[in-house]
Hints:
4-stranded mixed sheet, 626 residues, elongated, 17 strands
Amino acid sequence: KQWYQRRVRGLAKITMPVATGVEPAAAASPPAAAAGGAEEQPQQENQNTWKNLLWRFFSMYIMISVIPSFFRGKQAPATTPDGKVSPGHASNMWPTGTHFDLYLYMSPDDSFDVLNSTLLCHFEDLSLGEWYDGEDNNGQRNHKVTIPTSTELQNNGTMYLHMVAARNNANINPLHPQYNKYDVVVNSKMWTRFKKRKIETTTNLLTGESKNKIEGAEDGEIISYWHPNITISMLDDQRVWPVGQQIPPPFDKWIQIDLEVMQYKPVLYVNDYWELNSDLIPINKTVSELPLNIIYSPISVFYFQIYEAQKMQKQWNSMLGVAEASDEENDIVKRTMLETNPYILGVTIVVSLIHTVFEFLAFKNDIQFWKSRKSLEGLSIRSIIFNIFTQLIVVLYVLDNDTNTMVAVSVCIGLVIEGWKITKVMDINVDMSNPVLGLIPRVTIQDKSSYAESPTKEYDRLAFKYLSWVLTPLLIGYAVYSLLYEEHKGWYSWTLSMCYGYLLMFGFIMMTPQLFINYKMKSVAHLPWRMLTYKALNTFIDDLFAFVIKMPTLYRLGCFRDDIIFFIYLYQRWVYREDPNRVNEFGTSGQHPEGVPEDADITSEGKVMPQAEEPAPKPLEEKKTE
């Protein structure tokens, strides 16, 4: 917990906005622009965030615990009884407590040359494995520097950062006669990143103006970016490795054993896991200088494995065929881990697993309810038909916006399920003998008799009639607002975004027709209570996510709308109480949820009489005697 709090405080300083001297229009990075569009689907992102987080923890366990076990095998003791390294084993050249200096250079070349590099920072008298160094006694050293941009860098040039650690006041120039390669550790990393510029081609359909328009910028062009924060760490790992055997990952990429001295150099590590893509600064001709916040912080073996496991995750995703998370989704996961209390984070992960179970149970009971339902009396069929329309809008909206593949697949499955429900609540007949235009089979759709011949149909019609008086003005008002103040790709995109935003804001009202039917019939026996209960529990879990995940305040308050509807359902269930053993007006009871047998005897109180057991057949000899 103390390490986590130190890390949060350190990163809070790292991620503070720094003046870049970039024009506002030019400084709007593509990830930030994409994140603005992603906020329109916060609920879908919430679910995806926790699934990504759980997958990360699972992959870390595999890479840290399972994979290294394949490389161990039978090994000889690494040390002798007197504490010395056994023959055939290599130890760390730098023992714990070794004092060293850390230099950070910058150059356009990928190989370090002290004569052709610019010194940015020099940390003096550092100690390997020291966790209480620095002003805050947290092992960190900080230094800020402003770097003037060269003409080459402004034109998609490449810039490398070279980290050099030297002990015993060693000379870091390889050409110097007193240079000792065992006293110097060098690590180079390309710090400029190249990505495709993504410009939201949205405009106001009435005025033709666009807030995201950048002069001279083209969508899809590759430009360079600069991250204003770098964290350098020295790994204090004093383990002894056997020579001639495979070193387990992720250490195999970092440990290089020198066979002359049977030792290896310590790992000089650049910890870029907590660098958010939303902090990237696009480099162009208007950028005259770039900020860089340099931090030195020690790192343990455990956290080194965790960070390296995240880098190996892309390889695992490609091997297992798992879709990779986008930069925006990665930022959401990292922000969640940074800004959330560790205890709340652990509880929420457990609750997210329960959410997945409830989601499956709600799906299972929903299918069972409609599959075995014989009477439609008391159910709002118009709401089911309208659900197909809303689900279709969601599918088209998701496909129109570049959304995660898993989200697109899930909403498409939801559309298929809603379409299947139509076959259960309405009579659909296909007439092949009388086709339309001689080619298309004629399809006729009619209400089932249990719905058409009951008062439910009239109550359903009245509910939607009253509902249209409220929804129509809201739809017109929201459409006008969206057209005047929001930007869209085109008229088709405006139609989808307007309908989707309207459903997101007022869609909960479509649950009220069922409340009206319950009120008119003074009964709730016809409702699928198991499915409603599981969905209500998931709604409460979404409320928990609303306080954990960063999202707009209005959407956070909107998460409680479905709760209000469910509490009204509970109130109706309390008012219209039912005896689980009594047969209701729909021919069902608690003992017979699928319907009472036709030959059953029902008492005046509405309860099913137990059937008398038939006597066992008499033996043939007894019949002959009689």
